[in-house]
Amino acid sequence: MPGPYAVAVSPAALALVLAAALIHASWNALAKRAGDPLALLWWAGVLGTVVYLPPALWVLTQTGFLLSALPFVVATSLLHASYFFTLSAAYRSGDFSIVYPVARGLGVALVPFLALGLFGEHLSALGALGVGLVVAGIFALHWRSTSAALVAPGTGWAIVTGITIATYSLVDKAGVARLHPLPYIALLEVGACLILLPAALARRQALRDEWRLNRQGVLLAAVLSPGGYLLVLFAFQLSKAAYVVAGREVSIVFSALIGSLWLREGALPRRLAGAAVVAAGVVCVALAR
């Protein structure tokens, strides 16, 4: 029996969460770096489905499929298709070290407000502090003393992406209560790829170019995206969900480093500070009771 001063997160869980955070920021950076972000995300979704679907179908033969799960699968497929579309639009026009923290930070910070109406979950003082920090961090990311523009390019799409993340998070919370997570993920991937198929076919040349010129990035994103989430699932088995969710948002800090250094977007001190404040706010929201 652990004592009163036992660590909340085991070293193994912490390692898994930090790895998942780095992986999540990395495959998003691959999307930002792509010739056409939507083409890369669509290819990655298709290839990820190939990986997920066989074991998911096997799980379905063991657990069955409740019809009550169908509305949630349809809803999350639509939301994830919207997520990929808006995220790719944000990356086409904005810096990675701004778009990623805004989208991820809002995605978590908005959940308590949506949950209040849907589930009657009230925001605690710690949660309110977290939301305030997210807003302050986003303001810091956009503060530019020599620019007349109020917001950086891509911010509008990043905000829509954050709203989408918050919405599908709540849908998925209810969905996985009715269907095993593995087939749930596989089915939403299939649905999202099918919904985005017209948009993908409309950019056939971009799809061909992305596969021909950036095949390594496509394959890497297809592996990293599901791989990172699997690490999160394993971490859930070793630690409390709130700690895992909070630790995962270190990816926001990683995004500032990756964007400023690897993608050469510059402004490292300001963007790192802003991302750290956003991440701190997200941690408060995740840990709030």
Written overview of the protein:
The protein is an all-alpha fold. The protein has one domain (11-287). The chain has 14 helices and no strands.
For this entry, give a set of tags:
single chain; 289 residues
Walk me through the topology.
Elements: H1 11-33, H2 37-63, H3 70-93, H4 96-109, H5 111-119, H6 125-142, H7 155-175, H8 181-195, H9 197-201, H10 204-213, H11 215-238, H12 241-248, H13 251-262, H14 268-287
Helix pairs in contact: 1-2, 1-11, 1-12, 1-13, 2-3, 2-8, 2-11, 3-7, 3-8, 4-6, 4-7, 4-13, 4-14, 6-14, 12-14, 13-14
Radius of gyration: 19 Å
Helix/strand class: mainly alpha
Cα end-to-end separation: 24 Å
Q: Please indicate the count of domains.
A: 1
Number of strands: 0
Q: What order do the helices and strands follow?
A: HHHHHHHHHHHHHH
Outline, from the CA principal axes? globular
- Report on the biggest sheet: none
Give a brief outline of the structure.
The chain is mainly alpha-helical and 289 residues long.
